[in-house]
Amino acid sequence: MGEFSFIQWIRKRQRRRRDVTVGIGDDCAVLNVSSDKLCLITTDMMVDGTHFDLRKCTVRDVGRKAIASNISDVAAMGCRATAAVVSVCFPENTSEKFAKELYNGIWDVANKYTIEVIGGDTISGRSPLCISITLLGKDGGLKPIRRSGAKVNDMILVTGTLGGSILGKHIHFEPRLKEGILLNKHFTIHAMIDISDGLTADLNHILEESHVGAILYEDTIPVSKAAEEIAKKTGNTPLYHALSDGEDYELLIIVSKGQAKKVMESNLFPERTFRCIGKIVSGRGIRMKYAQGHIKRIKPRGYEHLQSEFNDSGEL
Amino acid sequence: MGEFSFIQWIRKRQRRRRDVTVGIGDDCAVLNVSSDKLCLITTDMMVDGTHFDLRKCTVRDVGRKAIASNISDVAAMGCRATAAVVSVCFPENTSEKFAKELYNGIWDVANKYTIEVIGGDTISGRSPLCISITLLGKDGGLKPIRRSGAKVNDMILVTGTLGGSILGKHIHFEPRLKEGILLNKHFTIHAMIDISDGLTADLNHILEESHVGAILYEDTIPVSKAAEEIAKKTGNTPLYHALSDGEDYELLIIVSKGQAKKVMESNLFPERTFRCIGKIVSGRGIRMKYAQGHIKRIKPRGYEHLQSEFNDSGEL
């Protein structure tokens, strides 16, 4: 299959957007932004052996995860996702079927949100499969929610349950795009982030950017079944996994006490999506109030970035 | 060096843009597009051993090439470049110095054009160095120049000289951003592309998108000194290299006869930047009129994309 027919294949497969002026196949793609104020952009790169393992998942799963993790970043700003460019480095002698399955995985998720693949680059190398997706978004009349707006006495909410995502959720999660937009549209959200590094690690990003501290209540942390399951294998507690495992892609939300109550009671979220797990305090760092009543400082733990050896992962 | 200090290092190093609302360090970057009509987007991925060879060039060179090749794509639309996101997969145990040199290379080029790095992702894997840059651009009141507007009797112009870029120009080229914008602003350009795959291969992209053919004049093709030099080694003619070598990153411009004359004589380009190398004809494919007078059909040749084995490179 030549480049031209591969582009034709892509053009025909996907749902098109009306604001895409030039899609795949020219020097640049062009998006009509005349009715937008802001253009959001986020990117994620994933490589076989680090972010996924092709011995344990399909290439279609990889496509799903690669686009969904980007959508989760747009969700964390409370904005809309629009279009993506997809770059892939395939191992040498990759089959056409394998390549197409990657795109099928991307569309499994992208079509649901009417995200169009408007460009990309396909290369091959003496390299494991490496995929880099850049996703664009727009404000849709809303203000993007930053990490830096947390205030003392704010409440800390979280969606879903946490921990043990490695047992499956890290591939098969649903990005909280709908929730992010609803929160931004109907409430005043002070800060928000998606939990990709781990609850305490991502909470710590908010705390550092906002120059505040936090206290968490042990008995409110929504520990997942997967966290309980994996705890049996690792010897750590389920709570440990809920606090430090990455890639749950849930939302961590910082709101005033009044707004927190409104969010939790809102008919917009009939499924009891949110749990209040703590509050923002002055000072720095994270403390945990245990069920027994004592309070202890805990270290943000999770997927650690750009360590001294520069041998880990860090999203900029 | 932790992630936070690496982000700080990046924040301090680069020239900032006023339209960047949120730069590096949040879930998404945010660009103010309220005064733009169109947002351009292009992406290039490069891997060690295929697009560059770290045994023969520095990692700083790699950074330069990675951003410059993207700028060349925006140049080929005749528009302005604004901001970039940079994703890198470093081989395991990469040093901090090596990583920083890559960014220094990017800024060597980006700062010249006031392009700000507003986000990215840094990972590591059991993989050769792989870099993926996505560049955004804006219309600046101009209409992006597509590949599809070539008309019968139009002239074919090209900037610079061609061939043998592998001897150095493929790393150390200057993207023709200034020329692209000037052409778009002051003339009516029917179609434009940058020569990354090779003259005949890229011309063929225009011909296919525009449903026309072309005739080239042998004695007008601007054969570079590098093409002559490399021809001595390969046994091919210098002309062969000028026609088929990739990565010269010159512009190939399709204009009416009247506009061609104006471009060639314009004071905007005092350096005699352009050569007229042929014209657009009806039918399909490329023919060459040789200096001796005979005309022969030639096959578009160059860096071939997405071959049957899916083992080559293809920009979508």
Distinctive features:
homodimer, 316 residues, alpha+beta, 60s Ribosomal Protein L30, Chain: A, Phosphoribosyl-aminoimidazole Synthetase, Chain A, domain 2, four-stranded mixed sheet, 9 helices, 14 strands, 30% helix, globular, disordered C terminus
Describe it for me?
The structure is a homodimer of 316-residue chains. With 316 residues, chain A is α+β, with helices and mostly antiparallel strands. Chain A folds into two domains: 3-138, 2-Layer Sandwich (60s Ribosomal Protein L30, Chain: A), CATH 3.30.1330.10; 155-298, PurM-like C-terminal domain (Phosphoribosyl-aminoimidazole Synthetase, Chain A, domain 2, Alpha-Beta Complex), CATH 3.90.650.10. Helices cover 30% and strands 28% of the residues of chain A. The first copy, chain A, contains nine helices and 14 strands. Chain A has helices at 3-13, 59-75, 96-110, 169-172, 177-186, 199-210, 225-234, 238-244, 257-265; strands at residues 20-22, 29-32, 38-47, 80-91, 116-125, 130-138, 155-159, 189-194, 213-217, 251-255, 274-281, 285-289, 295-298, 314-315. A seven-stranded mixed sheet of chain A has the order 8-10-7-11-9-12-13, sandwiched between helices. In chain A, a hairpin with a 5-residue loop joins strand 12 (285-289) and strand 13 (295-298). In chain A, helix 2 (59-75) packs parallel to helix 3 (96-110) and helix 7 (225-234) packs across helix 8 (238-244). Residues 304-316 of chain A have low confidence and may be disordered. At the A-B interface, helix 1, strand 2, strand 3, strand 4 and helix 3 of A face helix 1, strand 2, strand 3, strand 4 and helix 3 of B.
